[in-house]
Amino acid sequence: MDKSTFLKRLDERLRFLAESERKDILYDYEEHITAAVENGEDEAAVIEKLGSPELIARQFNATRVIRQAEDNKTTGNMFRAVLATMGVGFFNLVFVVGIFFGLVGCLIGVYAVAFALGFSGLIMAGIGAFGLLGGNMDLFIHTSVDFSYNPEVFSVGLLGLGVCIGSIGGLIGVLSAWLTKWFYKGTIAYLKLNVKVIKGEPIGIKH
């Protein structure tokens, strides 16, 4: 592939970028190729080292989407950044997907525990409060063993236990939110590093 064909194909693949940014990129690649040829390198070999226009476009797209996710922190932007990075190469498909979705699964598990404890604590505290207000606690006790109990003591204990369990669920929920924040930041940092490594940072090319 000669320089003219390479630049034309790259221009077509970079249509998702603003015209000014696209022109700057094309200029940098043209200058890089021209300088290498003037130094005695074979034009086709230089272009081959740069990679295909399609791959280069995917790399710039990944960088663009990652930047958007960094500037506008939403779940949708993060997933788009992950998907864009996956398209850069097989290495990304294996390591980005495996690590990312594994951690997402762990986060979902932590949120599920927080919700379960919070909801259970709320129910228990509600039943305890119901008993203290004079409700019939026999409605909530089903056992084949005959035993006697003090409804007021049982209600107080249930209320206290419910508050404790609910509080633990709340603390885990706060921890989950904190972990989510750092997971987002860590994911973006990892994606940026990943794309940088895949690009190889060619000399004279701006990123």
Concise account of the structure shown:
With 207 residues, the protein is mainly alpha-helical.
Question: Would you identify the regions where 5 or more consecutive residues have pLDDT less than 50?
Answer: 202-207
How large, in whole angstroms, is the Cα Rg? 29 Å
SSE order: HHHHHHH
Name the structural class. Answer: mainly alpha
Give the N-terminus to C-terminus distance in angstroms.
23 Å
Q: What's the pLDDT, averaged over the residues?
A: 82
Helical region count?
A: 7
Number of strands: 0
Overall 3D form: rod-shaped
Bin the strand percentage: under 5%
Helix content: over 70%
Largest sheet: none
Give your account of this protein's structure.
This protein has 207 residues and is mainly α. Helix content is 78%, strand content 0%. The protein is built from seven helices and no strands. It has helices spanning 3-13, 19-38, 43-50, 53-71, 75-86, 90-132, 151-199. α1 (3-13) packs antiparallel against α2, α1 packs parallel to α4 (53-71) and α6 runs antiparallel to α7. The chain is rod-shaped and about 95 Å long. The two termini are 23 Å apart. Mean pLDDT is 82; it is low at 202-207.
